[in-house]
Amino acid sequence: MNRFTTAILATTCLLLAPSCSFLKRGSTAVQNISSAASSSVQKVSSATSSRVKGISSAASSSVQKVSSATSSRVKDISSAATSKVLRRGAPDTPGSLLSEAVALEQAGKTSKAHGLYKKIVKDYALSDEAAEASFRLPESLYRQNELRDAFNDYQKFLDNYKSSSHYAMALKRQEDVAHKAADGHIKQSFLGLKSKISPSVAVKMLEQVITNAPQADSASRAQFKIAQLLQKEEKYNSALDAYQKVSGLYPSSREAPQALFNTGSLYVRETRNGNRNQANIGRAKDAFYDLVNLYPSSKLVPAARGQIKKLNQSDVMRSYETAQFYEKKNQPKAAIFYYNEVLSRAKSGSLHDLAKKKIAELGSR
User: What percent of the chain has pLDDT over 70?
Assistant: First the structure.
């Protein structure tokens, strides 16, 4: 290489030195920017990947939960549907219907239960399940305080299933309902208004109790309650007949002594209300004497003796007043007859002494 060429190259290098330095610095800057960009991209990529994984995991968990819940619900629906299909597919039997009715009642669905009980009785009347259903229906009504309906359904049971083990309980329940009706504890609705069952209806219910078991203790109790109802209604003649049935048909009952006492008291009432018919006084005394003689240990005996004493005094006074009437009418024989009646009824006392004196005076005339 000659000196000229060498000089040109040297000059060129001097001229290009700044550009080379700039290019070198630019290359370094580009490398730094590229490195930073690469790092940022990696960070963003890493963060994005992590976020995507989190979202994917959460979504997967939610899908699994929904899937699990849906599967469980589908199983329940499938099971219920299968059960329903099987039940519909299988023929009804008295036993299956009774079980279903009992389950409905226990679940509080009484109307549906009552419907099934009635269906069993209607469709399978001769089965044991029908007897059970026929008893369970009024029992359910009894617990719901639907006592009037319960009474009627107990009667249907008693009419149709006399050999049932529930027969005695049905009699007891029906008696209880009838007495509650008589005591005014049962109300019935009419046009939206509630009122007590009328005494006449209560009497019919009590009469049904007697008819169902005429020789049971329930019969005497029902007959006595009928008499009390009639007396309360001021139907005294009917009440007398009812009380006399108690003492006549059920002399061994607990109600018989009270029935006799009430009989005598009603006859006494007749005498006090102006009907001083000697027959009524005699009937009253007969009732009280029967009580004293037939039931000497009764707590009513002292009161009965007291009534007899009063009636005897009344008889004496009545005879004395009658004797005075005939004496004033100047009929001495008739007057003496009644004064002697005073002596026969009163062995002592003021009226006895006065009658004895009057007889002496009239006899001397």
Answer: 72
